[in-house]
Design brief:
- This protein is mainly alpha-helical.
- Helices cover 80% and strands 0% of the residues.
- The chain is built from eleven helices and no strands.
- Helix 4 crosses helix 8 and helix 5 runs antiparallel to helix 10.
- It is elongated and about 120 Å long.
C-alpha cells in the first residue's frame, strides 16, 4: 500500500532545500519566522552554530548607560576636588589681600573692628555693648524723626500723618524686596560650609597623622599656644597675634632688603658668638674634667698607703 505524498510537506521540503542556512547574527524571532515554526523550543545560537550570543540592543543600551554613569561619577569627583581647590585658593588670596593691605580701607576697618571688640569686651560684657549700641542708635533716630516732623509741620502747616517719612526711600525699597537677600545668604552659607569642610579635613589629617611634619608642627604650635595662654590672658594674646598678623608681613614687604641685611648680619654674629662660647665651654669642661680626675686620684692615694 503506497502512501500518498502530502503536497504541503513537498512544498515545505522544497523551501527548506532552497533556503540558505540561518545566519548566526539573526535574532531568535527572525529564526522562528524564517523557519515558520511556532510553539517549538527556541534554539540558542550556542546550540545551533556554537557561536557566542550576539549583544542585543538592550544590552548595548545598558552598557552605554553604565559607562555614562561611571563618566558622570568621575566628573562629579573631579568637580568636587576642583571646587575644594577653588575655595582654598579663594580663601588664601583673600587672606593675603588682607594682611598685605591690598585694600587699605577694608583691612583697616577689619583690624580696628577686631581690636575695638576685644578692648570693649575686656572691660564690658557683650550684652552691655550690644544694648548700649542699640540704645544710641534708636535714641538718635527717635529724636531726629520727631524733630524733623515737628519742623516740617510748623513750616508747612500740615499734620504729621500727611508728611513723608524722612526714611521713606529705605522703607519703600524694603517693602518692594526683602531686607535680607536670599541669594546672598545662600551664597555665603555655601561658602561657609565649604570653608568649614576644608578646616575639618585639615584637622582630621593633622589628628590622624597624614603627614608627620605637619602633625609635628601643629603639635609644637598648639603646645606653645597652651603655655602662652596659661601666662597671658586669652584676649591679650589674641589681640597681640592679630596685630602682628596685620603689621609684620606688610612692614617686612616694605623694608625687605634692609631687614634681610640685618638678619644676615645678626645670623653671622650669632654664629661667631656661638663658636666662641663653644670653644670656651669646651676648654672649661676639659679643665674641670682634669681637675676632678686629679682630685679623685689624690683621695684614692691615702687609702692605698694606709692599707
Amino acid at each position: 500500500m503506497t502512501e500518498t505524498a502530502n503536497p504541503y510537506h513537498l512544498t515545505m521540503n522544497k523551501q527548506l532545500n532552497h533556503m540558505a542556512p540561518p545566519s548566526p547574527q539573526l535574532s531568535q524571532d527572525d529564526l522562528v519566522r524564517g523557519l515558520k515554526v511556532l510553539g517549538s523550543k527556541p534554539l540558542t545560537p550556542s546550540e545551533s552554530t556554537e557561536l557566542p550570543s550576539p549583544i542585543s540592543p538592550a544590552n548595548v543600551q545598558k552598557l552605554d548607560k553604565s559607562d555614562e554613569q561611571d563618566d558622570e561619577d568621575m566628573v562629579m569627583v573631579d568637580d568636587e576636588f576642583q571646587m575644594e581647590n577653588d575655595v582654598a585658593m579663594l580663601i588664601y588670596f583673600e587672606f593675603m589681600d588682607l594682611i598685605y593691605w591690598e585694600i587699605p580701607g577694608r583691612t583697616g576697618i577689619i583690624l580696628m573692628g577686631i581690636l575695638g571688640s576685644l578692648v570693649l569686651t575686656r572691660y564690658y560684657s557683650l550684652l552691655y555693648v550690644l544694648a548700649g549700641s542699640l540704645t544710641i542708635l534708636t535714641g538718635f533716630n527717635l529724636i531726629f524723626v520727631n524733630v524733623y516732623n515737628f519742623i516740617r509741620t510748623v513750616w508747612t502747616g500740615l499734620p504729621t500723618h500727611e508728611l513723608i517719612h524722612p526714611y521713606h526711600l529705605h522703607m519703600d525699597a524694603h517693602r518692594q524686596k526683602a531686607i535680607i537677600p536670599r541669594d546672598l545668604i545662600d551664597y555665603y552659607i555655601h561658602k561657609a560650609v565649604d570653608v568649614l569642610e576644608i578646616v575639618v579635613q585639615g584637622t582630621v589629617k593633622i589628628v590622624y597623622v597624614y603627614d608627620t611634619k605637619t602633625t609635628g608642627f601643629a603639635c609644637i604650635l598648639s603646645a606653645c599656644i597652651y603655655f602662652a595662654t596659661s601666662l597671658v590672658p586669652t584676649k591679650v594674646f589674641f589681640g597681640a597675634f592679630i596685630l602682628c598678623l596685620f603689621t609684620v608681613p606688610y612692614f617686612y614687604e616694605q623694608h625687605q632688603d634692609t631687614l634681610d641685611e640685618s638678619l644676615t648680619t645678626l645670623l653671622e654674629k650669632s654664629k661667631l658668638l656661638l663658636e666662641k662660647y663653644r670653644t670656651i665651654v669646651q676648654t672649661h669642661s676639659t679643665t674641670l674634667y682634669q681637675q676632678s680626675v686629679v682630685l679623685l686620684q689624690q683621695k684614692m692615694q691615702p687609702k692605698t698607703t694606709m692599707e
